[in-house]
Each structure stands twice: as C-alpha cells, then as structure tokens.
Design brief:
TIM Barrel, alpha/beta, binds zinc ion, 7-stranded parallel sheet, 359 residues, two-stranded antiparallel sheet, single chain
C-alpha cells in the first residue's frame, strides 16, 4: 500500500498503536562511507545533492525505512548571515572559520532570511524529496533551536553568555530574528511537502550545565515555543534533546525527569536514552504527552557493535517502550559517519521481528 509508512508513523506519532514499531535513523548523510560519491560540502550549497544523497541512502538499505529525517549541514542558516565554515575530506565535523556576531552590536545586523531566496537550496531539497519519496513515506527537515544557533552558528558561547549578563536586549534582538527565520522557513517546508520538522535543542554550548532553569526558559524555551507554536498544524514535530558525554538535561538540573520538556508543544521527543533517563522512566513521565523516539546507542552499539548486538539492543528497547504504541525505534542522535550499513539493516530487521503489533 502506498501510504503504509505514513499510516504507521503518524499513528505512532499520535501515540496510537500501528501495525508494527516504525524505525528511523539519521546521520549527516552525504558524509557517510557507503555514500562516498556524495559531498557534504556540496549538499550545503546544492539542494539537488542533498536530496540525492538522502534518496541514495534509502536505496542502499535492504529494508524500507519508515521515516526519513533530512539532515542538512546544521548551520545552514548561519552560512547566509555570513558565518564561515571549512569542510574537510567529507568529514562530518566541520570547522568554524568565522562567525558573524563577534560584538554585541552585531546581533542587530542579522535579518530574517527568505526561505525562497537565501534558503532556496534547502527548500529545493525539500521539494525534490516531496516529489521523489514524499508520496511513499513521511519526511521531516531539520531546524536548530534559536539559542543553539546563537551559541554555535552565528556567534560563540563566550559572546552569548557575556551578552546574557550584560546586554540581554541585544542578544534577544538576535534571537528574535533567528526565531522569525526558523518560523518562515519551517512553515515553507511544510507548504512544500515536508511532513514535519525535527527541532534540535542542546548539543554543545554547555546549555544544560551553564544555563539554569530560569535562563533556559527565558533564552531557549521562550523562542523555541514561538517556532513550534507556528507548526501546530504540522503532522510531525519531533523535539531532539541533544546531549553529549559531558552533559545532559538530567545530570544538570534534573529537568528531564521533572517533566520540564512537557513545556514543548511537540508530538514526539528523542534523546540519548542509554546515556540518561532510560526508556521505561521516560515512557512513564512523557508517554501520555509525546511519542517516544529512542532506543539505540549511536556512539557504541550502532557504531561499533555487531549486527547481533544492535538487534539485541533494539529488541530490548521494543520490550521496554513499545507497549501501548506511541514509540518509534531510533538512535539518541545522528549516527556517526562510519556506522556500518549492516547495522542500519539490523535495526530494521529487529523492528520486523520483534515490533509487530498485529498482522
Ligand atoms: Zn543530538
């Protein structure tokens, strides 16, 4: 059936029980060994390259992925404001050469990017995917939280934390411009055929350790909500709570298990469940509000594990969180570029073996 994957994913996203557990994995796809003819750098300035790389990934798999998360170079908006980055050898880690906001006064130099002008290549990827795979499967495009963009894409943690203390109004002016850009671009993606938006918060900038709850609410949540409220009618809004080995929103402040993320008007949440807040705990706290998207460790099992180990981790995740529906099997963040293709297939196989709700 043409719309089988839509039905499966959207049922799970709306916390229902589909025919089986859907699965999805994402990475910086042109920067992937098994897609060696695609360029991560080119994909950032050419929407055709980005779309082709994602379609090539789907074609490489032995199984049909249920949901495609499209991953552009995550600092794409900042490139148009004037930040400069250096791509080396198709490595997923990209070096920052220059940022546009160096001084406090620079926040006012940002302007709202036009989705059809500055961001047209990103939109072109959405448009191609919409016609290429969008009739058969849902796909979502990536947008980073305004505070994350401020910290890492358009400026630096040093500038942002200093302005938070001494020049909050200037920083807020910048955040507002970034927020409006996120809203305009996200809405245009939906109009162009994307099924939804993958919205990332955290991941560097030490936001979980350096910002206490009131600051997170003033500088992150306030703007994040503006973006997400504007996407209320999107079929999928997936909040990615990004973390690293040094910090996460549970070890710093306990926000994850206090249920703080219920403040986010989204349909689904994704986080690194093997690093903090295990699946059964999260399902209990968030299961009535959000679809749970997690289960696999991108830094260990997916990257270095055998197929059997990946399958075992997937099976365990399904047993812990799939009951009653509202669950999508995935990893806690982008999989590394050297993750073997066989481990993608192992996730799919586990979903088909252990994730059947009804035949
Ligand atoms: Zn992440």
């Amino acid at each position: 059936m043409e719309s089988e994957r839509y039905e499966r994913v959207l049922t799970a996203v709306n916390r229902g029980t589909p025919d089986r557990v859907p699965w999805a994995l994402w990475g910086h796809f042109p920067a992937t060994k098994f897609l060696e003819y695609y360029s991560w750098e080119k994909a950032n300035r050419d929407g055709v390259e980005s779309a082709k790389a994602h379609i090539a990934l789907l074609n490489e798999l032995d199984y049909k992925m249920d949901l495609l998360k499209v991953t552009p170079f995550y600092k794409y908006m900042a490139c148009h404001w004037g930040s400069k980055f250096r791509f080396v050898n198709n490595e997923e880690e990209v070096e920052t050469v220059d940022v546009v906001v160096k001084k406090t006064e620079d926040w006012s130099k940002l302007w709202v990017l036009d989705p059809k002008k500055e961001l047209k290549e990103n939109l072109r990827a959405v448009s191609i995917l919409s016609r290429g795979v969008g009739k058969r499967m849902p796909f979502i495009y990536t947008v980073a939280s305004p505070i994350v963009q401020a910290l890492h894409h358009v400026s630096t943690p040093g500038r942002v934390y200093a302005d938070m203390k001494e020049n909050p109004d200037a920083l807020k002016e910048g955040l507002k411009t970034i927020t409006e850009t996120c809203i305009d671009f996200s809405r245009t993606c939906i109009e162009e055929g994307a099924t939804g938006i993958f919205f990332g918060i955290g991941g560097g900038g030490e936001i979980w350790s350096r910002m206490k709850q009131p600051q997170l609410e003033e500088y992150a949540l306030y703007y994040d909500r503006m973006v997400l409220e504007a996407l209320r009618d999107a079929p999928i809004t997936l909040l990615h709570i990004c973390s690293n080995t040094m910090e996460n929103p549970q070890s710093h402040g306990g926000l994850m298990e206090e249920g703080w993320f219920k403040n986010y008007p989204v349909k689904a949440i994704n986080w690194w469940n093997t690093s903090f807040t295990p699946l059964p705990v999260a399902k209990k706290i968030y299961g009535e509000n959000f679809c749970i998207v997690a289960g696999l460790d991108q830094s260990k099992t997916m990257r270095y594990g055998t197929r059997e180990q990946v399958e075992a981790e997937a099976k365990n995740a399904i047993q812990e969180a799939a009951k009653g529906g509202g669950f999508i099997l995935s990893a806690g963040c982008t999989v590394y570029q050297d993750t073997p293709l066989s481990n993608f297939n192992a996730v799919a196989r586990a979903a088909e073996r252990y994730g059947i709700y009804r035949r």
